[in-house]
Design brief:
By secondary structure, the chain is α/β, with parallel strands linked by helices. About 40% of the residues lie in helices and about 20% in strands. The protein has a single domain, classed as Rossmann fold (3-Layer(aba) Sandwich), CATH 3.40.50. The strands form three sheets. A seven-stranded parallel sheet has the order 3-2-1-7-8-9-10, with helices on both faces. A three-stranded antiparallel sheet has the order 5-4-6. It has a two-stranded antiparallel ribbon with strand order 11-12. Helix 1 runs parallel beside helix 3, helix 2 runs parallel beside helix 5 and helix 5 packs across helix 6. The protein is globular and about 55 Å long. The model has no long low-confidence stretch (mean pLDDT about 90).
């Protein structure tokens, strides 16, 4: 029997944790990665070379690579701050940028690098162009730029993406992304930043239509903690409601939520000012709206930081498959 096709959409470290565990399973994996990051090393490279920001793509490639760890450590190596010219840049970001410049095609350069890195599955940047994230806040104010948007102490109402190279046209995802979603057995959103890692992918018009058409089970892995500048005070149901609202119809029917209590000391260490808290579970609203809820201990605490336990999430996903 052929392997099940699983598409995981998002960005950030949470996505890499899930992919690293799923690659051990008998599934055909495709990671669809956001291209609207404009902060840190990715943002600097993006501004200088006008390429898709490489940071999230780099982390996903490492998560799915089968190369020896010492080679992956080299790819992930970040230059020290005193190295003025290379300060803060990860070597992998520079390699991805160089390949993109050589081929003049980010998508094809990632496919080439995937072969060199012996990737288990596919890594697809959602677009071949670097996109700009736009947000409207509840008070009607509009701001641009992912790293800029999260600095406002205001609730975000909605987000959308634009292509600075083609302002008059709506951004579109590359065809392999659409084909992967339409042919998938399961599509997973997250875990990751709701407004800056997940939504920038699904608000692209042909991605939204593909999610509407696919026969795949669409699930959302809810964040364990709220996020400053994005999801303070939002429940797990609020997260899902926002996703479905951006998709313009109820597309996500299943949610994975952590039910293990986080020690208060760890919560405080992750949010010393007390802004961030564990995402509140609103089971009644979820069930009343016909949402399938998979509630379990998905918590993993490493070096006092809060993550999803990749192995436990993998088992829940395989059970759903």
């Amino acid at each position: 029997m052929s392997s099940k096709k699983v598409v995981v959409i998002g960005g950030g470290t949470g996505l890499s944790v899930i992919l690293n565990s799923l690659k051990e399973s008998d599934v055909e994996l495709t990671a669809v990665v956001t291209v609207s990051d404009d902060g840190g090393s990715s943002g600097i490279i993006r501004d200088y070379i006008n390429v898709v920001p490489p940071g999230d793509i780099r982390n996903v490639m490492v998560a799915l690579s089968t190369l020896p760890q010492d080679q992956l450590d080299l790819f992930q190596y970040r230059f020290k701050s005193q190295d003025d010219f290379f300060a803060g840049h990860a070597l992998g970001n520079l390699i991805i940028a160089a390949l993109s410049e050589m081929t003049n095609d980010m998508f094809e350069s990632i496919q080439y690098l995937s072969k060199l890195m012996k990737i288990e599955g596919n890594v697809y940047p959602v677009s071949n162009s670097p996109l700009v994230l736009n947000a409207e806040f509840m008070d009607g104010e509009i701001e641009r730029g992912e790293s800029h948007i999260v600095t406002f102490d205001k609730q975000i109402k909605s987000v959308w993406v634009t292509d600075p190279n083609q302002e008059d046209e709506k951004p579109a995802a590359v065809n392999p992304v659409i084909k992967a979603i339409e042919e998938a057995d399961m599509v997973i959103l997250g875990p990751g930043s709701l407004f800056t890692s997940i939504l920038p992918n699904v608000v692209i018009s042909n991605v939204r239509l593909a999610l509407e058409k696919t026969k795949a089970k669409v699930i959302y892995i809810c964040n364990i903690m709220t996020q400053e500048g994005e999801t303070e005070c939002l429940t797990d149901y609020n997260h899902l409601e926002i996703i479905n609202k951006h998709l313009k119809k109820r597309t996500v029917d299943t949610i994975l939520v952590n039910n293990r209590q986080i020690p208060q000391k760890i919560v405080h260490q992750n949010s010393p000012k007390g802004y961030l808290k564990p995402v509140e579970h609103d089971e009644k609203s979820l069930i009343d709206n016909g949402i399938e809820v998979i509630s379990a201990d998905f918590l993993d605490i490493k070096n006092k930081n809060i993550y999803h336990d990749g192995k436990k999430v993998r088992q829940a996903i395989l059970n759903l498959l």
